[in-house]
Design a protein that fits this description.
This protein folds into 2 domains: about 5-125 and about 165-225, no CATH class; about 300-438, Uridine Diphospho-n-acetylenolpyruvylglucosamine Reductase, domain 2. It is an alpha+beta fold. The longest helix is centred in the C-terminal third of the chain and has 22 residues, at about 375-395. It is built from 16 helices and 10 strands. Helix 15 crosses helix 16. The strands form 3 sheets. The chain has a 4-stranded antiparallel beta sheet with strand order 5-6-3-7, sandwiched between helices.
Length: about 450
């Protein structure tokens, strides 16, 4: 979606102010701009999402967008707007645990989206190149490509994950970090109210939130990046700067550190524990480990998973002394594909609906992993998807408790899988944006 000229002009002015190293003293006057609010509302409508506790949906405001925006703008101007609590829901994680999500009310999502439009251009002038998550024009595959490129130079890897990061963010520390760039007390007060608005689960009373930034709101990823920028990225740059011997690559709360030698990696790990303790965070020990990638034999022991990819060394068959870095879909990513299809393929779906579901899931998964060396794995998963289609049809057309023979299902199955084809895999040594050699 293209932003209106008024919104683009405001963002350019704020960005130019930030480029000069000046603090933002009067951001709130932009927050009440109806054109900025209208663009934010359009973004929220485009992203859809379920209703919050007030049960106001994006469908209910269609055709009345300008009235909604004018009313919200006036309430922000006279300072009568108050963010409400978020609706707490849970989604299953791959390890069997539940991930909490906080769904704000529609008007709160619009205000948060405006804050993102304003603060994003400020912090893009401050964030370091090692940060990739939730930033414009940066994707997870960009981060994985850089890590794979760095493994050629650095053979010692620290794979790390922060324990329940979004639930452990300190409100006081976060607000103090924001004051380094944002000096408008009205903006800071509004963000504080959003952080401390609490949450409510269906059928349960309201509960306060003493810490954490709930996943599910538009503002949460940006605040998380600000927090880790000061807790991790800035501290890392203070110690290592642009050193070529130790590098950090971070995507949200998942990150890896690469080093030339094992001693340098162990030193970086000690620093990391100190930085986490200062930020009132802790590392998830089950997902934090050192990986030695110096083993040049054809072995899968020298490997690590990052952002859904398995990165490992593979020796050339004709010359074991030479090796290359392989990027392939991880076992967890392959399991998630099967789980997603199993969850979405319901027996009441028509053939056209089932075909659309399979196409959507398969294309989304394949598009993400096309920038890899996983051609053989993608073809293997294609056969796995076809088997799942057969199993789905056997459930759907079971008669009198007896399954239908597979040969009778083949004709029906082909109507679903015929459009399902593997997407061409781009070689590892090519940059997926420009096609230039890495």
């Amino acid at each position: 979606m293209s932003l209106s000229p008024q919104t683009r002009h405001i963002r350019i002015r704020v960005a130019e102010h930030a480029k000069k190293g000046r603090k933002q003293w009067d951001l709130y006057r932009y927050l009440t701009d109806p054109y900025l609010l209208a663009d934010a509302l359009e973004l929220v409508i485009k992203n859809r999402g379920s209703a919050g506790l007030d049960q106001v949906t994006v469908v209910s405001v269609k055709g009345k967008e300008w009235d909604f925006v004018k009313d919200l703008s006036e309430r922000l101007r006279v300072r009568t707007y108050q963010p409400g609590p978020v609706k707490r829901t849970y989604i299953p994680k791959s390890n069997g645990e539940q991930r909490p999500l906080g769904i704000p009310n529609l008007e709160d999502r619009v205000v948060q989206r405006v804050l993102v439009l304003l603060l994003e251009v400020v912090y893009e002038q401050r964030f370091h190149d090692c940060s990739y998550g939730f930033r414009p024009h940066r994707k997870a595959v960009d981060c994985v490509a850089k890590v794979a490129q760095q493994v050629y130079r650095h053979r010692h890897i620290l794979e790390a994950d922060i324990e329940k990061f979004f639930d452990q963010v300190s409100h006081n520390k976060l607000l103090k970090m924001l004051t380094r760039e944002i000096c408008d007390p009205r903006i800071l007060r509004l963000i504080s109210q959003m952080l401390k608005s609490g949450f409510q689960e269906p059928g349960k009373p309201w509960q306060p939130s003493g810490k954490g930034t709930p996943q599910g709101g538009p503002l949460s990823p940006l605040l998380a990046n600000v927090y880790l920028h000061h807790v991790l990225d800035e501290r890392f740059m203070e110690v290592y700067g642009q050193s070529s011997r130790v590098k950090l690559f971070r995507y949200a709360d998942d990150f890896v550190i690469t080093a030339k030698t094992q001693a340098e990696l162990k030193t970086a790990r000690r620093f990391l524990y100190i930085w986490m303790r200062e930020g009132e965070l802790s590392l998830k020990e089950s997902k934090t480990r050192e990986v030695d990638m110096t083993n040049e034999r054809r072995s899968h022991q020298s490997k690590f998973d990052f952002l859904g990819f398995k990165i490992h060394l593979r020796a050339f068959t004709d010359n074991p002394e030479r090796f290359w870095i392989a990027r392939q879909p991880s076992e967890k990513a392959r399991r998630s594909l099967k789980a997603s299809l199993k969850e979405k393929l319901h027996v009441h779906l028509t053939m056209n609906e089932a075909r659309d579901v399979v196409q959507s899931v398969w294309r989304g998964w394949c598009n993400y992993f096309r920038y890899s060396n996983g051609n053989s794995i993608i073809y293997r998963e294609l056969h796995s998807v076809r088997r799942q289609i057969y199993q789905y049809l056997k459930r759907k057309y079971r008669r009198g408790g007896r399954p239908v023979p597979w040969r009778k299902l083949t004709k029906v199955a082909k109507t679903i899988w015929r459009p399902i084809k593997p997407i061409g895999v781009i070689p590892n040594h090519l940059d997926h944006k420009q096609g230039s050699l890495l």
